[in-house]
Structure formats: structure tokens, C-alpha cells
Design goal:
Length: 129
């Protein structure tokens, strides 16, 4: 019986995904957010993406920012969206840099953001992120 229990426990442990870079809680919240977003419940999606974003996950920060920009499941709030985009950009998330560039009215600053997006994307391609 002990061997069977040990085998089942070992199989369970091997089947578990490796903890996400930002922690299990952030990963679970992010997946819940995606599930609700795909299921059409934008309000609940925003809640769970907010949980993941608060735990430091740039993917969630980016998605939440876009929901805030669009007023998708949350009241439209460009200032809060920019705050989340800046937080994701500080973590070198290329999509956040690109979005900031697209929102920027100053062409020189927008170009700077786009260069940073390209640089961050290069690092992602090299596996440095």
C-alpha cells in the first residue's frame, strides 16, 4: 500500500507544472482571468487579471491596461491603464512599450518607446526574459 501511495504521489508531483516565474498565485489568477475573458465575463476577467498584475505579472498588467483603455468590464480609465502599462514596461514587456508608444503624442518619445519595445523583444527572442 505504501508503494502504491508513493507511486501515486510521485506521479502527481511530476504531473504538476513548474511554478510560474511570478509565483503560483499569479499564474492561477492569470489563467482564471483568461478563462473569464474567453468566456465573456469581462468584469471577472478584470478582477483576476488585477490579482495577477498586482503580483508582478507583466502579461496581466498589459491585458488589464487594455481593458481599462477600452472600458471592457471596468470603467474606462486611461490614467490607470497608463500606470499598468508603465509597470509592465519597467519589467521589459515589449508589448507594453509598444502600447505606450502608440499612446504617446510626442513623436520623439513615441519613437523612443518603440525602440525600447524592439530591444525588449530582441531579448525575449534570445531567451533572456
Amino acid at each position: 500500500m505504501k508503494r502504491v501511495l508513493a507511486a501515486v504521489l510521485a506521479a502527481f508531483m511530476l504531473a504538476q507544472p513548474v511554478a510560474a516565474q511570478h509565483g503560483d498565485e499569479a499564474d492561477v489568477a492569470y489563467r482564471r482571468g483568461l478563462s473569464h475573458k474567453n468566456g465573456g465575463d469581462a468584469g471577472l476577467a478584470a478582477h483576476w487579471l488585477g490579482v495577477a498584475a498586482a503580483r508582478g505579472m507583466p502579461e496581466a498588467m498589459f491585458m488589464l491596461a487594455n481593458m481599462l483603455l477600452d472600458g471592457d468590464g471596468v470603467p474606462r480609465d486611461e490614467a490607470a491603464a497608463r500606470t499598468w502599462l508603465e509597470a509592465a514596461a519597467e519589467l521589459d514587456y515589449p508589448e507594453a512599450w509598444q502600447q505606450l508608444g502608440m499612446l504617446e503624442k510626442d513623436p520623439q518619445k513615441a519613437a523612443q518607446y518603440m525602440r525600447r519595445a524592439a530591444h525588449a523583444l530582441t531579448h525575449r527572442g534570445e531567451g533572456k526574459r
